[in-house]
Amino acid sequence: MSRRPVNPSRRYGDAGGGAALFSLSKSHSPPLLSIVLIVLGALLIVAYFHSGSGSGGIRSLVSRVEGDFSCTFEVLRALPILKKAYGGGIHKVLHIGPDSCSVVSNLLKEEETEAWGVEPYDIEDADANCKRLVRNGIMRVADIKFPLPYRPKSFPLVIVSDALDYLSPRYLNKTLPDFARVSADGVVVFTGFPGQRKAKAADVSKYGRALEINKK
């Protein structure tokens, strides 16, 4: 799949609102605190899969992304936990990230689940199924450095994977609040460790300086 950032003027499809994962009162919590709590919730979900049978402990909090590998597998593994958080089902969800077509296709196989996706790269080499999702308005191709083309609280749950690793602090400080804006209740973020990943020069140049999470 081509990994070229799209022109922000390219937009496809639309969607709208309601259910619950992490219940946060956005009107009573500072926006930054809400985002931190949401991300911590995501880390706990991933930690669940990397913990032992009770005494093994947590081996890793998040998936360590190396080379061209992604967090897509971890997203799919986390779906049963997210379904439990929703009381047995995920009824409406937005996925943001490369390989979104794959995640959305799997979500649409679930009963009573409505899923949409945002692909931050051009999809010139996408398969027929992905192009069909775009034509049907289920998938959008959009530059996430700009506001998403959805109304506030359009989705109860927003899942983000492999989309934030190389955003500079300037763009990250705008992008995360926008993800929270379109979410009614929760944003779950799956990401790697940019400080430990050997990025290709071409990849880093697309997004600016890699965000150094592990440094103060």
Structural class: alpha/beta
**What is the total tally of β strands?**
5
Largest sheet: 5 strands, parallel
**Residue-averaged pLDDT:** 69
The low-pLDDT segments are: 7-30, 46-68, 194-216
Shape: globular
CATH architecture assignment: 3-Layer(aba) Sandwich
Q: In CATH's first tier, which class applies?
A: Alpha Beta
Structure description:
- The structure is a single chain.
- The chain is α/β, with parallel strands linked by helices.
- The chain has a single domain (31-193), classed as Rossmann fold (3-Layer(aba) Sandwich).
- It has 6 helices and 5 strands; from the N terminus they run ααβαβαββαβα.
- The protein has helices spanning 31-50, 72-85, 100-108, 128-135, 169-182, 201-207; strands at residues 92-96, 114-119, 139-141, 155-161, 183-190.
- It has a 5-stranded parallel β-sheet.
- α3 links the parallel β1 and β2 (114-119).
- The termini are far apart.
Keywords:
about 220 residues; 6 helices; Rossmann fold; 5 strands; 5-stranded parallel sheet; about 35% helix; globular; single chain
